[in-house]
Amino acid sequence: PTELMLSFLHLSSSLKRTNKELSSSNSSLSSNSESHNESPLPSTPDTAPRTHRRGGVSVDCITDLDDNQSRLLEALQLSLPDEAAGNRKKPRDKKLSLNPIYRQVPRIVDLCCQHLEKNVLQTLGIFRVGSSKKRVRQLREEFDQGWDVPIDQEQCVHDIAALFKKFLRDMPDPLLTRELYTAFIHTMLLDYSAQQSAIQLLVLLLPP
Questions:
Q1: Which stretches make up the Rho-GAP domain (predicted)?
Q2: What is the rounded average pLDDT of the residues 19-38?
């Protein structure tokens, strides 16, 4: 009987110790679960702080540029070397530039200039030789109606040149403005470095 009692006490002690360990383990798991649930959520793109590089401009605020900033960007764009500007060109069917200058250029001017640039070296008298008034008028009407007018090698280069001249001629105000026209002409009398600086300053004075 004594040995049986001792065995029973030993078994009871072991069961209590096991229950205590299980209870402690459950408490630890519950504590970890609560701390995990109370942990702050990871920052989302909306709540995370937005950082900008020093001197940078976010995409959202490009359209909010004031006149002075927009003109400064225009002057910097126009002062780029030809080869640097060529490296920055993107195909129209892939992406549109976020440059404010790009949005200000009418589509008819953009397409005409691209076509003329491709053919100017192979065509004699590109702005002097006559064109078809009927085709020029038809092209202008299609652009005015907002159609997607294709300008490719099938179009006569002299018609495109005449269309470009007509668009500039029909503008309510001259491209270089009457007030600044004489100043632009006089820049031709300056040496190269002074001429570049003068043209950049005159560009800043042009209306947006």
A1: 96-208
A2: 56
